[in-house]
Design brief:
Layout (H helix, E strand, L loop, with lengths): L10 H46 L9 H89 L1
C-alpha cells in the first residue's frame, strides 16, 4: 500500500473561489435585506398616502374649511414625493439584488468547475494508486508462487 496522499495542485485557488462564493452569498443577503427594507418603506408610504387622501375628501354631510383641505393636499403631495423616491430606491435595490445574484451564480459556477476538476484528478489518482497496489501485490505473489513450485519439485 502506498503512503502517498492525494494533493490537488489548485487547492488554494479552489479555497479562494469558495471564499469568493461565501462573500457573494453574504452580499446577496445584505442586498436582499436592503431591498426588503426599501419595499417596506414604499408600502408604508402608500398606506400613509391612502389615509391622507381619505382624510382630504370630506365625508358626505360634513363641511371642511379650505385651509384644512389645503393642508391635507400639501401632506399628500409630500407623501407622493417621498413615495416616488422610495419607489426609485426600491428599484435600485432590486437591480442590486439581481446583479449580486448574478455575481453569486458566476462564483458558484467557478467553484464547481474546479471541484469537478478536483474530482477527476482524485479518480485518476485513485485508479493509479489501485493499479500500483495491484502490481505490488502481483509482484509479491509471483516470487512466492515460483518458490512454492520449486519446493514441490525438489521433494
Amino acid at each position: 500500500m502506498t503512503a502517498n496522499r492525494f494533493t490537488f495542485r489548485l487547492q488554494r485557488l479552489l479555497a479562494l473561489r469558495q471564499m469568493a462564493e461565501r462573500a457573494a452569498a453574504i452580499a446577496l443577503g445584505t442586498a436582499q435585506a436592503v431591498a426588503a427594507e426599501a419595499h417596506a418603506a414604499e408600502e408604508s408610504l402608500a398606506r400613509r398616502r391612502a389615509s391622507a387622501r381619505e382624510a382630504m375628501l370630506p365625508h358626505p354631510g360634513t363641511e371642511r374649511r379650505v385651509a384644512d383641505l389645503r393642508q391635507v393636499a400639501f401632506l399628500v403631495e409630500q407623501i407622493d414625493a417621498r413615495a416616488l423616491n422610495a419607489g426609485k430606491t426600491a428599484k435600485v435595490a432590486d437591480r442590486n439584488v439581481q446583479d449580486t445574484r448574478e455575481r453569486l451564480g458566476a462564483r458558484v459556477q467557478e467553484r464547481r468547475i474546479l471541484e469537478r476538476l478536483r474530482e477527476r484528478h482524485l479518480v485518476e489518482w485513485s485508479r493509479g494508486t489501485e493499479r500500483l497496489e495491484r502490481e505490488m501485490m502481483d509482484g509479491i505473489a509471483r516470487p512466492a508462487a515460483g518458490a512454492g513450485t520449486n519446493t514441490l519439485t525438489d521433494d
